[in-house]
């Protein structure tokens, strides 16, 4: 859009004299399909476009004022320092005034500006986004969700009819793109998958409601809405304009971040985020709805990108790029609905033998879910992951419960097509044989990776271990060595022995 075709207010907001503070010239304008965003140096000003897309209605001044205030309120949760105030814009003698006296003609949201290179999307493009960032993000999103509001009204949005409405609307609004960026086959199969999911998994949706996993979430948690601001991960620009997009299953938020990283061909980073989040929350059952929401998030990106094709003000070159982008997202949405072969991998070995490190690397390579017995045990015991467990956490009964839950989760998730790594000592034949029997019963491939390292290396690792949720210390080694049972002939075909001091 050339400057001459911009609304008069935006034209004036591109002039330094409009602001009561110094600006960095030239003022930069970013447009989305719903907003104008002006970057002035220290501050950002955001205006809502007078549009009505059905799922979003900013068509009147009153609505734009209301949603500016909602945006300010809701973003205090993840980005309190960034969001400052809502200001009126007035008009006198064809001149617009920020925070002027008289009748407001528009409202703007004022925010602190931070360098765009601090966005996760920019860090990604610079090759600076790593596993550690994504693991930290997983823990931060887990905390955000733990503090997010829920009540009967919010939970009602987890009903199948409510969840489904958005999917049906997406399909309805994208029929016209079949033969363009979308193909008939992908459209039909994606829709069939979600229809079947809603028809067959009603109990799963009911359990998500009962267990309080429907909350006031972020709703738009992709890399452009996450920043490393003042060395702290900040979640901003949450959905303020639509309750059904915000009152959602926590997995809806998680899926957006995972989908975005996978769209950028970095499944490993998505995996690091996902495993850190789930370990923190203990919501491994939630993974059962993840493929549904992954597909939905990719589909929404496809839909929104497709909308650009209908906008007469968007240049042809941008439309060509948008067609390609939308096509990739439609394909990704379809891929998430395709059946996958699940598998179980049992880790085995002494504390300090390198099981969890090996499991983590394997998870990143395979896109697998790593379930650590330490985390399962502490969730069962009702203590924080970072708290040291007392003797009551390590009774034979608690160990039995831990392994039973590990295997139960492994079977549920592998049956749904996930590769699952059960990361525990698995030092008893009985525990291993139970897992083998269950895997055979469900026709799931299983392997056992037995980690070894010289005893002095194991001791050194345990002595130097910091910042980890595992409680095992070097004084337990002797009893572990005594208790470990060798692999029987029945188990040996499943076993691979890995020396963790060697590269694999």
UniProtKB/TrEMBL annotation:
It comes from the Bacteria. Its EC number is 2.7.1.12. Keywords: ATP-binding, Kinase, Nucleotide-binding, Transferase. GO terms for molecular function: ATP binding; gluconokinase activity. One of its GO terms (biological process) is carbohydrate metabolic process. Pathway: Carbohydrate acid metabolism. CDD domains: GntK. It catalyses: D-gluconate + ATP = 6-phospho-D-gluconate + ADP + H(+). Belongs to the gluconokinase GntK/GntV family. This is gluconokinase. It comes from Amazonocrinis nigriterrae CENA67.
